[in-house]
Design a protein that fits this description.
The protein has about 400 residues and is of the alpha/beta class. It has 14 helices and 13 strands. α1 runs parallel beside α13 and α11 packs antiparallel against α12.
């Protein structure tokens, strides 16, 4: 397997989203870290938000983290659509005090045409995310927009309601993250998550849950040489390993093992997992073990009646809690009962079936450009579900002072 190191020092990169040159921000003067620490834990959650993707930010709030913002990206659908989902999810829970920042539209290198050509060479995926060919009939029935048009918006897919609020103006997602990390040095956890899209009604409609790429985070890394080092940590959902044989069992297992969030933008994933964050925690295979059974789902929706539990009752699927596992690990690190230190990278060799795949090494065999990550193997499952049920029973809102984001 050939892993291309594109994480060497570059003076600038070209933004496929806007056609502008992105330069490292060396001119902005940020205050010294020692003058700003206040002991509070902050987070920015970067995801391709969908109609049932609210539990991660509820977990962060429930752990008394201050959510500085939700950042949207392209992966499961185009960034404009998932920005609307993020706004709507906050609005229904009286959390519109938390800013939503629209992210980069296009991956660094990957395009619709390039993705389809890769599938012709190396096999079709059960779920192709935003690069699924456009299906207007499915969109009319509730599918988020897919295909080659990044400007599509589907109101019918906003089952949580169309938002009355708008995304933050005057800043890109990358610049917003850079500014917040330097405002609160050593205290901001950057979260990026993924999950699965589930086919319903004989593949006519797909109910999507967030599946975020790392494009915004990689852009921030490239724009500002101290962004990663000034953050508290990077916590990400993704990085599946050793699931190829498992994928043979069914279309569902093929989907689970595809790690589409990395495949949407492998180059961005590579940049992120090799960047100098003080800590990188990876929730990969472990998230498949946190299964939301029908019995537990019934218990949750019967124990509390609020906008979020009503969405769960009508639309949530009894499947592993991918995004939620990563968010819980960030919110409550004590949940981790077993992990391993590994050196990690993401394959950026396009002419390969492993394009976008994760590879791990022990220290003595790792390539020089890689760095150590905390690869989580097991969590305390009873505590995980107990805490999740608690934040869903009493979700925080903006009228509770501890939840208000500071921007």
């Amino acid at each position: 397997m050939r892993l291309i190191n594109i994480c060497v020092a570059l003076p600038a990169i070209f933004s496929l989203a806007s056609g502008r040159l992105l330069v490292r921000d060396t001119a902005t003067a940020y205050p010294p870290a020692s003058t700003l620490r206040n002991g509070t834990r902050y987070t920015i959650l970067d995801n391709d938000w969908g109609s049932t993707g609210f539990i991660p930010f509820l977990m962060a709030l429930g752990a008394d983290m201050k959510v500085l913002g939700l950042v949207s990206d392209t992966a499961n659908t185009w960034v404009g659509q998932c920005t609307l989902h993020a706004l709507a999810l906050l609005e229904i829970g009286e959390l519109s005090c938390i800013p939503v920042v629209k992210g980069v539209t296009n991956p660094f290198v990957q395009t619709y045409q390039r993705f389809q050509q890769w599938q012709q060479s190396w096999g079709k995926l059960e779920w192709q995310g935003v690069f699924l060919p456009e299906n207007l009939t499915a969109q009319a029935s509730g599918l988020d927009p897919t295909g080659n048009d990044p400007n599509q918006i589907s109101r019918s897919a906003l089952i949580e309601g169309y938002p009355n609020t708008t995304a933050l103006k005057g800043s890109t997602a990358a610049q917003y993250m850079i500014d917040q990390v330097h405002k609160y040095p050593g205290q901001v956890s950057i979260y990026s998550a993924v999950s699965l899209s589930i086919a319903l009604e004989v593949h006519v409609v797909k109910l999507t849950r967030p599946k975020g790429a790392l494009t915004n985070i990689a852009t921030a890394i490239r724009m500002n040489s101290t962004f990663a080092s000034q953050a508290r940590e990077l916590v990400l959902m993704g990085g599946y390993v050793d699931l190829n044989l498992y994928q043979l069992q069914s279309p569902l297992t093929q989907d689970i093992g595809s790690d589409l969030n990395f495949l949407i933008d492998p180059e961005a994933a590579h940049i992120a997992v090799t960047a100098p964050f003080p800590s990188i925690t990876v929730a990969g295979n472990v998230a498949n073990n946190q299964l939301l059974t029908q019995a537990r789902l019934d218990k949750i929706v019967k124990s509390a009646d609020n906008p979020y539990t009503r969405l769960m009752k009508n639309y949530f699927i009894t499947l592993p809690l991918w995004d939620e596992t990563a968010a819980a690990i960030m919110a409550w690190p004590d949940l981790v009962t077993k992990s391993v230190t590994a050196y990690m990278d993401v394959n950026t060799a396009y002419n390969s079936p492993d394009y976008g795949r994760t590879h791990l090494w022990s220290k003595e065999f790792a390539p020089n450009h890689t760095r150590s990550v905390n690869f989580v193997l097991e969590i305390d499952q009873p505590k995980f579900f107990s805490r999740m049920e608690k934040v869903l029973a009493s979700p925080k809102s903006c009228n509770q002072s501890s939840t208000t984001a500071t921007s």
